[in-house]
Specification:
CATH class: Mainly Alpha
CATH superfamily: Tetracycline Repressor, domain 2
Helix content: over 70%
Distance between the termini: 47 Å
CATH architecture: Orthogonal Bundle
CATH topology: Tetracycline Repressor, domain 2
Radius of gyration: 20 Å
Length: 227
């Protein structure tokens, strides 16, 4: 997913390469914020530049166009949550503890990166749906969470902790449930609060909501949910 410009810059001397990486990272950070607030159609490259200490020509130097910048921001947002999951070292934990850690990390990441949630929502509203994620490299990046969960479920079933059989959830099922509840908690926070009086992110019921989600996920997979 790198451009020819990126490749050429990466081959430069150490300090120059680090400067280029910092500039590119700063542009991506700004782009994530801009496009998460206004989407691809409403977002402006000038606004991205205003959020950084760089100049407009550097944005086009690294990314080529506004759409490619938007795509890079979207992919970088996914890369960050996959990196968060990978850093948990779940293979070093017992299956139940590992699953709890993954749920908590996902909830925390979504809460602390609301721009990611908004950006994904914008992408889903575009005609064609998720056209900026139609790339084998991007699919492989995101498939890492499924592989992680497959290993986790296999270890749990071998240990007799997680249920098995035809009705047992697959790794993709589990990812969908975790992702859905973590995403909804942030994406629908305002409407849920106004309609039902429950703030899922802050306030008196925050801990209850976190425990509710964690318990729901564990009961989906535990061989003995009452244990």
């Amino acid at each position: 997913m790198t451009t020819d410009h990126d490749a050429g810059q990466a081959g430069g001397p150490g300090p120059a390469r680090r400067d280029a990486e910092r500039t590119r990272a700063a542009i991506l950070d700004a782009a994530i914020e801009e496009f998460s607030e206004r989407g691809l159609l409403g977002g402006r490259v000038d606004a991205v530049v205003e959020r950084t200490s760089t100049v407009k020509r550097m944005v086009y130097y690294y990314f080529g166009s506004k759409e490619r910048l938007y795509q890079a921001a979207l992919i970088e947002s996914y890369r960050r949550i996959r990196q968060t999951e990978g850093a948990l070292r779940l293979a070093d934990l017992d299956p139940e503890t590992a699953l709890r850690a993954l749920v908590r990390a996902t909830l925390a990441h979504q809460e602390n990166n609301a721009a990611f949630v908004r950006l994904v929502m914008f992408e889903n509203t575009l005609a064609g749906g998720a056209i900026h994620l139609m790339d084998d490299e991007v699919r492989a990046l995101n498939h890492s969470v499924v592989l992680l969960l497959e290993d986790l479920l296999a270890r749990g079933r071998d240990a007799g902790v997680f249920r098995s059989g035809a009705d047992a959830p697959t790794a993709l099922d589990l990812h969908q449930v975790i992702s859905s509840m973590a995403f909804f908690r942030v994406s629908n926070r305002a409407t849920f609060r106004e309609l039902f009086g429950r703030d899922m992110v802050e306030g008196a019921e925050r801990d209850h909501v976190l425990e509710l989600i964690e318990t729901t996920v564990l009961r989906l997979v535990l061989a003995d949910p009452a244990a």
